Amino acid sequence: MTSSDSETPVLFSDLGLAEPVLRAVSELGYETPSPIQARIIPHVLAGQDVLGQAQTGTGKTAAFALPLLSQLAPEASGVQTLVLTPTRELALQVAAAFQRYAAHVQGFRALAVYGGQGYGEQLRGLRQGAQVVVGTPGRIMDHMRRGSLDLANLRCLVLDEADEMLRMGFIDDVEWILEQTPESRQIALFSATMPTAVKRIAQRHLKNAAEVSIAVRTTTAPTIRQRYWRVGGLPKLEALTRILETEDSDGIIIFVRTKVETEQLADALAARGYAAAALNGDIPQNLREQTVAKLKTGRIDILVATDVAARGLDVERISHVVNYDIPYDTEAYVHRIGRTGRAGRSGEAILFVAPRETRMLQAIERATGQRIESMELPGVARINERRVTRFKAAINQALTHSQQQFYRQLLGEFCAEDGLDPLDAAAALAALLNGGTPLLLDPAKEPLPTRSRAPNPKRERGDIPPGARGEGPSKGRPSARHPSAELETFRVDVGRAHGVQPANLVGAIANEGGIDSRSIGRIKIHDTYSTVDLPGNLPPAVVATLKKAWVAGRPLAISRFNETAAAPKRPGKPARITLPKDGKPKRSAKPRVSKGRPKSK
C-alpha cells in the first residue's frame, strides 16, 4: 500500500483508527494507506455515508473494514455490519480480510454467507453471534426471510462492487435488502462505474454522502514485458529459484508484502548461493544506502523489498522485477514494475498469482489496459541444460587461474601415486566443489504443468453478457475459461413468462453452483424455459445443488438438454404477484430474482 513518491505519506496512525486495529495493520506489514484508504477512512469513522468510485484492487476493502472495526461495539448483540458482494469468492475474501484486521479485537467473528454452501454451517455462525456478515444478495435475502438473520441492530451496510451486482442481476435483491434495514444505518457504496441503476440507489438511500473518486495511475512502460505464473505444482520458493536460474538477468528486485518476509526470503536465497539482501522500513538509513550501493555496483544481485522501502529506488541495472506476493492495489503494481524498463531500457516483470488472487490479476489488467501473458515454469531439462552450461563455463574460467600450473603438477603426482585416471580425480574434485549436492535435477520430480489462461477483458467489462450470442443447444465446444472442458446445453424451468433475464441466470448459477461466470456460454430465453451452455464435466453434486436453486420466484430444476428434449416438461405457471388492498404493488412483492428458495415469514 503506497502513496505517491512526491507526497509526504499519510500514516495509518494519522487516521484515528483504534489501537487494536492499528496493531494488526502493523503486523500485516502495511506501512502507508493507499489513496482511497486515506480519503475514505475519516468519513466512515465519522459515521457519514460514502459513495466511492474505485476499481477493484485500489485497497477499498481495508478502506471500509478498518474504520468499521474501530467503531465496533463488543458489548452490543446482533449483526453490526452487513457487506453485500456479487460473488461468493469476494464474500470469502472480504470476510477473511475483516478477520485479519480484527486479530486483536476480543471476541470478534466475521461470517461469509453465500449460495452453494449448506445452510447448517451458516446458521451455526449466525447463532454464535457474528458481528460482521458478508454475503451475496440472494442468500442474505433467504436468511432474512427465514428469520435467521436479524438486522434490527445494523449500524452499517456496505455495497461492494455495486455495478457488478447490477450486471449479474442482483440489483432488485439489493433494493429489497436496503428497504428492510434500519433508517439509522450508515451506507458505504463502492462501484467501479456509475450506471444509472447504481446512481438511483445512491440517490434514494444515501444521505449527505461524501463522494470519493480515485483515479488510479495506470501507465506502464511499453518496454516492460509482463508475465504471470499461476502458483501451483511447486512451492513458491522453488518456482522462484527455477526462474532465477533460467532468466538472463542482471539486477533483480523481488517484492513481498511484509518486513518479516523480506528477511526470510533474502536468507533463503542466500542459502541457495544467491547474492541477496533485504530492504524494508525497519532498516536504518545508512544501512539502506549501503545495500542500494551494493546493488548498483554488482556486489549483490537481488534485493527483496517492501513497497515503501523501494520508493524512489532507481538502479540502472535492474532488469527484472518479481512480484513474489501480489500487491494489494493496482497502483502499487504499477509502482513496483516501474523499477525496471526505465529510460527506454527493456525490462521484465513477473507476477506470482495464487488461485484466490485471480480477481487481483484481472483488476491489474483492467487498470493498466494491458494483457499480462501467462508463463510456464522452466522444466527439468531446461534447468539441467543451464546448470551444465554454467559448470563448463566455470571450468573454462578456472583454466586461467594464476595457480593453474601448481594444481596441475599436484594432481599429476596424486594420480601417479595411486594409479588414478586423471578424469576420475577431476570428477571427484567437481563433486567436492558442489558440496555433495547433485548438479542436475531428477526428471522424475518434474511437476505437473500449471498453464493458465488470462481472462477475457471484454467479458470482464460486461460489454457482452454471457449467452447473448447465438441460439440452440450445443455440445463439444470448448469453454473459454476451462479449455479442457467442453460445453454442453442444459435446460432450466424458467423463461420469458417468468420475467427472467440472462443476467439473472448467470448470477444464480455462478453463486449457487460455484461456477465462474466466464464459464457460462450461450443462454437462450424461451417462453416457459431457457437453455444454458455450461461445462459438460460438472460434478453431479453441483448439478444437484443447481436443481434446488431458485430464480425469478421459481426453482431452476436444471437438467441436461438431451435428457429433456425428447419429452418436454409441462409449461410452468408464471410467478404470482399478490397485491395489497390499495391495488398498488409493493417493491418486495416483485418476482424475486435470487439464488436461494424463498420462505414466507
Automatic annotation (TrEMBL):
It catalyses: ATP + H2O = ADP + phosphate + H(+). It is found in: Cytoplasm. SUPFAM superfamilies: P-loop containing nucleoside triphosphate hydrolases. The keyword Flavoprotein does not apply. One of its GO terms (biological process) is RNA catabolic process. Keywords: ATP-binding, Cytoplasm, Helicase, Hydrolase, Nucleotide-binding, RNA-binding, Stress response. One of its GO terms (cellular component) is ribosome. HAMAP family: DEAD_helicase_DeaD (MF_00964). This is ATP-dependent RNA helicase DeaD. The lineage of its organism: Bacteria, Pseudomonadati, Pseudomonadota, Gammaproteobacteria, Chromatiales.
